[in-house]
From TrEMBL:
Record field: catalytic activity: L-proline + NAD(+) = (S)-1-pyrroline-5-carboxylate + NADH + 2 H(+); L-proline + NADP(+) = (S)-1-pyrroline-5-carboxylate + NADPH + 2 H(+)
Main location: cytoplasm
EC numbers for this chain: 1.5.1.2
Gene3D superfamilies to which the protein is assigned, alphabetical: NAD(P)-binding Rossmann-like Domain (3.40.50.720), ProC C-terminal domain-like (1.10.3730.10)
Similarity comment: Belongs to the pyrroline-5-carboxylate reductase family.
TM region(s), chain numbering: none
Protein name: Pyrroline-5-carboxylate reductase
Tree of life domain: Bacteria
Organism: Tritonibacter scottomollicae (Epibacterium scottomollicae)
Keywords per UniProt: Amino-acid biosynthesis, Cytoplasm, NADP, Oxidoreductase, Proline biosynthesis
Protein's UniProt keywords contain Cytoplasm: yes
Length: 263
């Protein structure tokens, strides 16, 4: 990747700037070889990286870049005129299919991925799928890019990216909703708001760390608590007997369906 120039179109948005920060911090690409397109010509939060090239001219960015990352809002993609026929194109736009990207840009070397703003903390999960026209070097670039953002996998079915868009893309999204419910419960029981907030934040931090390490899957952690037959087991048995799982599935289905129409 040392000799590749990397351009980001949409690099000032939440996701684009998060990926940019991950790449810069990991030194995946030297900052002198990174271009960012910005309508204002400004890039907030990166004043300590003077080597970055910021431009309002996407044509200049494309001309300078070997690899172009597309992370503009899906609705805006159709309004852009981008000739990317000779480039490796990596997209993290929700709902915009590989066929649509090729139609709009002329690119054949296309990698479509899903990431999240957690990339700024190198905590994103970024699965991706590639066209047959991509080379081993192209796929190695994508792997290095998304490893800088957290963890990654190459997958084989493009339709599965819509599932990840619903599940892992909206960080903290669904997880934050469960935290909100638990914080509201604590408030209803009379806990001070600042204490309830701190307790729930720490709970989810600790839970995430425990589930992120070791071989135990989420279902293993749940079963361990139930087998212990303590206070948590009593609550989990109630939840397992409720409709909460089915309702969560409906929410995820709604998010997947929206992903498949947003582009």
């Amino acid at each position: 990747m040392a000799d590749q120039t990397f351009g980001i179109i949409g690099g000032t948005g939440m996701l684009g700037s998060a990926i940019l920060r991950a790449v810069v911090q990991a030194q995946t690409v030297a900052e002198e070889r990174i271009w960012v397109a910005s309508r204002s010509g400004q890039l907030d939060g990166f004043s300590d990286h003077p080597g970055l090239s910021i431009t309002t001219d996407t044509t200049a960015l494309i001309a300078a870049s070997d690899v172009v990352l597309l992370c503009v809002p899906p609705a805006a993609m159709g309004t852009l005129s981008l000739d990317l026929r000779d480039k490796l194109v990596i997209s993290v736009m929700a709902g915009i299919t590989i066929n649509r990207i090729s139609e709009l840009t002329g690119a054949t070397r296309v990698i479509r991925a899903m990431s999240s703003p957690a990339a700024a903390e190198r905590l994103a999960y970024s699965p991706w799928v590639a066209t047959e026209a991509t080379s081993d070097a192209d796929r190695a670039f994508a792997t290095a890019l998304f490893e800088a953002c957290g963890s990654t996998d190459r997958i084989t079915q493009e339709a599965h990216l819509d599932v990840f868009t619903a599940m892992t893309g909206p960080v903290p999204g669904f997880v934050a909703y469960f935290a909100e419910v638990m914080a509201d419960y604590a408030l209803a029981k009379g806990l001070p708001p600042e204490v309830a907030d701190k307790a729930v934040r720490q709970l989810f931090l600790g839970s995430g760390q425990m589930m992120a390490t070791g071989d135990a899957r989420p279902t293993d952690h749940v079963q361990e608590m139930i087998d212990y037959a303590g206070t948590t087991a009593a609550g989990l048995e109630v939840l397992r007997g409720s409709d909460i799982g089915a309702e969560l599935e409906k929410g995820l289905d709604a998010a997947v369906a929206r992903c498949r129409t947003i582009g």
